[in-house]
Structure formats: structure tokens, C-alpha cells
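Field notebook, page 490. I keep forgetting to write these up properly, so this time I am using the form the group agreed on. The chain and the ligand, NAP, are recorded exactly as supplied. Prediction of the bound pose follows.
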Amino acid sequence: MFGNQILGSVSYQGIRHFSSFDPTKNRENSEHFLCASDEEIEIALQSASISFDSFAQSTPQKRSLLLLQIVAELIEIQENIKHIYCKESGLSTDRFFIEFNRTINQLRLFASFLTNSYLEIQSETPENTDLSLPKLIKKRIGIGPVLVFGASNFPLAYSTIGGDTVSALAAGCPVIVKAHPFQPETSYLVGNAIQKAISKTDFHPGIFSQLFDDSYDLAKILIQDSRVKAVGFTGSFSGGNALLELINKREEPIPLFAEMGSSNPVFIFPELLKEKLDKWSTIFAKSITNDAGQFCTKPGIFFVPTNSDGREFVDLLTKKVLEEPSFTMLHPKIFNAFEAKKRERLEECSGELIEKKGDLVPCMAKQAILISSIESFLNSKSLQKEVFGPFALILYYSTKAELASAIDHLDGQLTASILLSDEEFVNNQDLIFKLSQKVGRIIKNGVPTGVRVCDNMHHGGPFPATTDSRFTAVGTDSIHRFTRSVVFQN
Ligand code: NAP
């Protein structure tokens, strides 16, 4: 039995238990996880609140050491995490290593940032005695206890010790994680490493708690509690939207940084297409299908010129997408949603759906391409919604004016790719500016998957991709979601 992680230890009170699912074996795992009781929730909230003062006043250097200690603890149990990660997610060991290293690098990046670059004092304005104006010192401080919800498609890098938790701890904010119910044991192991790391410092153990639930009750209680001062969420649009509604019912408004789904449109211009047919169809087929397309940056919509090169590109892309290996999805719920959404999109546009043939094992996604027209896209608001999985929608266009209308019609997105020559790049600055109003990252001649974790990344975008387009969920700037300014005047 796995309990709730509060105050530096594990509590086994609970109110009921649930199990996770092994998608590759298509059966429930035997381990049991206890859903947090009211008393356990209260302890997590109270200890986060009590520990805030000392944590927020700690030096960035001390917080940096904490992050490095978490790295050491994670590395020590890497083998154990690997086994459980694969069992609960169906993701491969290769993918585990990529994500584990990304998680470690993210912690190290923040540790180095806190030691070398993070300035608690933002600016100082000297006093002006002639004009009798005071001196101003503008400082950053942590916003308060942060509630974190991770996504199932990154059981490490966007989960218990994902970007939200790391940036909140870096900012000096205690964190309460609601563990993702698809990977509770992975979350537990990581939570244990965090608790162990904290116990080797003199930080209050209340700066980290992790609670389990298999319903939405825990989320509701936590989000509406006045001691929670910000929320980091990575997940679906429906999940993010539900949290937004709950936040709006609070007496005291607080920021919700919800990073949600995206369809990551790809705009193909004519000039380079013939020359790049093979390369572009290969890299995009992999980007659509890798790990069953379960990435928030998976390219999901392609705008392709209606000419022979465009048709050849679509033929090649479709062929390569179907030839790529199929993968089991993270959970039967995600698999069923994927199958349903493919059919919904087909019904919405009455296009041609080309899917992988044959019988696949349960939970294994049949990758697919749906070919439709730009008119269907422009006449529908829902056709552009994310299909989470190995799927892409192809839309042929004829004129630049159609592309402009398509961009106007787009919802906010995390990314957009533009495939074009340097000359087309220069000549289409009007379209590219229009696009920049809709997305957080524009990729020239490349795929959107693979979000580099570094100082200059912006991983975000206008609603509905996120709830606040001014902030990034990836990279060191993400710390500013959980800090606020205060001015000392004298
Ligand atoms: P999800 O189903 O929204 O779950 C995320 C978390 O939110 C889970 O703990 C979930 O609990 C909870 N949740 C969902 N609906 C809720 C509600 N109505 N009330 C309270 N809590 C709720 O997302 P997921 O399936 O794990 O992740 C896949 C999605 O995340 C995709 O859409 C993907 O594009 C997106 N994603 C975005 C980013 C980004 O950076 N923008 C990164 C990775 C993934 P339950 O499981 O109990 O529902």
C-alpha cells in the first residue's frame, strides 16, 4: 500500500484505494494507492503554509543545493524508477532515459541559474534629495504555496518533479503535488526522492507534499483553499478549463498557469517543397507517430499547397506515417479518446481517413492521416482541436489569402512550423507576424516536437494553449510564474 507524502514521511490514513494500469500487458497493476483523507489534505496545506516564510527567505544558493540533492537522490533510484515508469506508462526504456536525463538537466539548469544568474533584487532607483524622492529597491519574492498537477504523457519531466515543481521550489514556494493517477508509483518514488533530499537540508519538511486521488474531489478542495496562492497545471484542455472554473469561484483570485493541448499547425510554402519532399515527409512522419504522438507539440494540422508537389508530399507523408511503428498509448482512457476523436474529426469534415491496417494489440494506437479541405477548416471551430495521439489533418490551400484566413481562424497554439525558402520567409512577414499573434514558438523548417530546456525557451501560447500567454512552462523564465515583486521604499 502506498500512502500520501506529507511532512517528510508517509501517511497511511487514506479514504479508499486505487490501482494504476499497465497498458502493454492490458491489465491493472497490483499495487494500491491511498486517496488522501481530509486530515491528510489539511496537514499538507497547513505545513505548506507554515513552511513558506522560512523557505521564501532562504537564499537562492541554498535552494540550488536542494535541487542538486534531489538530482542525487533520483540518480540513486534511477533503475527502480525506470522499471515502474515503463510498467505504468507503456513507454519504452529508451524514452525513459531521454525523459530522465531531461528531468535531471532541468534540475541542474535551475540549480545553476539560482547560483549564477537569479537576482532577487530586480532594480534600484537611488533617492533624489533635490526633488525629495525616495530610494526604491524592487525585489522578487515567492508567491506562496503552489499546487501542481502533472500530465500523464511526461511521467517525470512534467509531473512530480517536472518544470512546475522545480520552478516553484526554485522561487522559494512550497509545493503540493496532486499525483497523476495513471503513474502513482512513479510519482511516489520521485516524491520519496524529494522528501529524502529535503531531509538532508534544514528546510522545513512541509515545503513538499504529494497527495493521491482517483476522483476530482482532492483537486476541488486544494484549489479552493485560501492557503494555495498559485496553480501549475499541465494536461488536457478540459482539465485546465475545469480548474479555471474552480479558481473563478474562489474569493481571492490566484493565477492558474495551465499548459494545455495544441494542434501545432504546419504551414508548407511551395518553393522548397519539391527539393525537401523526402526529408520533410520523413521527419514529420516520425514527429506525428513517435511514442504514439502523445506530445503537446505533436504536429496535428498541415496546410499544403494544392499542386503536384503538395500531393506528392501528402502521399509520401501518409505512406511513411503508416510505416512507422505503432505504440501502446498511456492508458485505455487515452486510447479510447483517440479512437473516438479520429471518427469525430472525420464526421466533422467528411474527408478521407487513412489509417494503419490490421489488428493491433489492445491500447495500441492506429496512426492516421485525415485529408480534408481548407473550406471545412474555415467552416468549423472544432476541426482544429487537438487529437492527442498519432494523427494529423491535411488541408490543401491555393492562395496566400486562404492561408491568412486560416491563421485568423486558428485558436491559440503552443507552436507553428513554417516550411519555406529564405525568400518566402522575407516575402511573407505579414503572415508570419499574424501567426506570431496565435502561437508561442515559430519553427522554421523543422518539427515542433523536442522542446529544448534552456534559458531562452518559450513554451506557452495564447488561450486555449495556455491560460496566460505571457509566461513559459519550460526554461528558467518559468520561475517568474511563481514570484512577485515587492518594492522597499525609504
Ligand atoms: P489530463 O487528463 O487533463 O490530466 C492532468 C491532471 O489533471 C490529472 O491529474 C487529472 O486527473 C487532472 N484533471 C483532469 N481533468 C480534471 C478535472 N475536470 N478536475 C480536476 N482535475 C482534473 O491530461 P493528461 O491526459 O494527463 O495529459 C495529456 C494532455 O496534456 C494532452 O492534451 C497534452 O497535449 C497536454 N500536455 C500539455 C503540455 C504543455 O506543456 N502544454 C505538456 C504535456 C502534455 P485525472 O487523471 O483523475 O483526470
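OBSERVATIONS:
- Residues 129 and 190 are 55 Å apart (CA to CA).
- The chain has 15 helices and 21 strands.
FOLLOW-UP: compare against the apo run.
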